[in-house]
Amino acid sequence: MKNELIDYYSLMPHPEGGWYKETYKSSESIKKSGLPKRFKGKRFLSTSIYFLLEKGDFSAFHKIKSDECWHFYSGGVLLIYIINESGEMETVKLGNNFKEGELFQYVVPANCWFASVPLKNSSFSFVGCTVSPGFDFNDFELANRKDLIKKYPQHKKLISKFCR
User: Fold this and answer.
1) Does the domain formed by 2-161 have CATH 1.10.150.120?
2) Neighbour-count burial for 104-115, b at 16+ CB within 10 Å, e otherwise
3) Considering just the CA atoms, what is the radius of gyration of the chain in Å?
4) pLDDT tens for residues 67-102?
């Protein structure tokens, strides 16, 4: 099934791990002057992607300058690990079994470090991500393992596991 999804949606390798394809970019944008100072240029109002992680792969710790809403579509549970700016860790289960505490959607706040991985018994997780203001690779920062551990030593084990 995962290979069929990769082929059908023409997914490409993502720098953080996994596979993706941009599915939406708004036709309108926001000028730099209308955005918070953390943005260095204009941004589209919103963007969306498909994102697929296979068993044995992970999305490495990274952060972006916008809120990112994750949507569950198919496959097994996806674990999302979020370290907020004060260093608190939260683990979210993205999936379709709400009786087990799984969520269909979850918003990772801007500037939080986060990583994701399919649950051990999941062969893949197929999700979507919507970003507003829209995603731009200029707003993307892949974590440096050593620097992130220095900042959040209490999460050393997890950071070591989910950095490239």
Assistant:
1) no
2) eebebebebbbb
3) 16
4) 999 999 999 999 999 999 999 999 999 999 999 999
